[in-house]
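Dear colleague,

Thank you for sharing your sequence with our group. We've completed the structure prediction you requested, and as agreed, I am returning the results in plain text so they can be pasted directly into your records. Please verify that the sequence below matches your submission; if there's any discrepancy, let me know and we will rerun it promptly.
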Amino acid sequence: MSSVPALPAALDPPPGTTRLRAGRLNLEPLAGRHVDAVHRLFQNPEVARYLLDGAPVSRDWVAEAVRQSSADFRGGGLGVWAAVGNGRLVGIAGWRVFFADRGAELFYAFDPLTRGHRMVSTTVRALCHYALEARGEARVLASVDPPNRASSRVLERCGFRFQARERRFGAPNDLYGLDRKA
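Please find the predicted structure tokens below.
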């Protein structure tokens, strides 16, 4: 019987990292205990299709992403939260640098079974409120693959405005922005 290797403490965010509430969901900073659930989430073809362009990812890749999120939190930045409902991880959401010339962007990935329950839009609103109001960020950016209309609708429902269609790595990418209210 094989066992799952232990994860290093560096995967856990620092004590006191902000936990948030989004409707029925608890948003807790992504930590080592979430690696296996996030890995399972990313194995879902409907999730991987847009977030990862369909590419499979290893558990080690997920562990490194969790480590990077914890490092972002440790450095005083914005990281990634696990969206937990009824004791089960149903998605993740937070900030990550995808394009060096733009800085961190909001992204999210949720179990397709959450569709129609407003969990994604509630989470996006909670994270944007935290970034814009509690942390004083001036603007939140998010980019979407144009065929992912469901994600574009979530952003639009949350007040984001379409900014531009760009080509990144040879593929179209729609940029959305949400500014802090004056």
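Summary note from our side: The first strand starts at residue 20 and ends at 22.

Kind regards,
the structure core
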